[in-house]
């Protein structure tokens, strides 16, 4: 069933914002023109608002709050996934790579939790409107889990593989006795957590082989790979040698510059932009964008951030809307090989977000369309015929 969107301002691939109409069918944009003829398809009025490509979020772990809303309080992952899906859509995110950490820690980020997450995702996927994918964040010291994670990769359960290494940060916290947050998510007491940490660190010699094994498995599946928290140029290049062409949250400008100089992608957090800097005292994302040192912005831990970060960059000056929006859509698609989305063009997947930008300081998602279906409706479009009761028999199923 076709659907026509009218009365809107669309951001086109050349950066122009044009008043056009879009015909959607079979999950794709099939035609764009100043005016489209009627063929009996429902016509939904965009109220003169701004139409943008759907956000593609390469790294988001805000779903963890749905899985563990309070310390030591766990919710079934299928319920958490459903709730996260609705949050994603309400924030204009139409493709989401859930950052599932598989650590040597038990609890929220343990292997058992990762296994349960994958099983729940398979079961609940028919009920999800956002294109939900798995960004598996492998803690490198979790060498005992390498064989199982390799099997997940081989079975096609992983869409993006990232290598994490947090023993340095955790070690400092253990030494300072500041492990309350780790105890909360693992269920261990302080002594047990410290003992586990020291046992894990003792197997450092096995880490390179385990990481190489998983990198080889990812390459066999042609999966994109990332390194996380690159703390030096040498670290970045070591992971690049494994096939990691994405640098997530590099510590400094020189590391980002080195990654970009060899054609790799630099991912930074959108919350960094809307907060005015890194909460960890690292690379300032807004300044990195202005300096040409950032390729992609992600939600990281806060789903509203990509939308608001893009508009904040435009308001601050020096970055146009196309360049800002590419950071959360087109560039993200390119980084992981999703050639079917990220721009508003005929033939592309019809993942779209309609934004009420009348108040430049507070852009609001008015509607989200995923694979050609209106899946989220904000109150501002009810008056323009987008109410679910308007044409119940003609909207795509």
Strand content: 15-25%
What is the straight-line distance between the termini? 8 Å
Kindly report the CATH topology of the largest domain: TIM Barrel
In this structure, how is the largest beta sheet organized? 8 strands, parallel
Q: Which labels suit this protein?
A:
397 residues; TIM Barrel; 2 domains; eight-stranded parallel sheet; seven-stranded mixed sheet; 15 helices; 15 strands; 24% strand; globular
Annotate the secondary structure layout.
Blueprint lengths: L2 E9 L5 E9 L2 E6 L9 E11 L1 E6 L3 H4 L9 H14 L2 E10 L8 H14 L6 E9 L6 H9 L5 E5 L2 H10 L3 H7 L3 H12 L5 H14 L4 E4 L4 H10 L3 E3 L4 H9 L3 E5 H6 L9 H6 L5 E3 L6 H12 L4 H6 L3 H6 L16 E5 L7 E7 L2 E5 L20
Overview of the molecule:
The protein has 397 residues and is an alpha/beta fold. 35% of the residues lie in helices and 24% in strands. It is built from 15 helices and 15 strands. The strands form 2 sheets. It has an 8-stranded parallel β-sheet. A 7-stranded mixed β-sheet has the order 3-2-1-4-13-14-15.
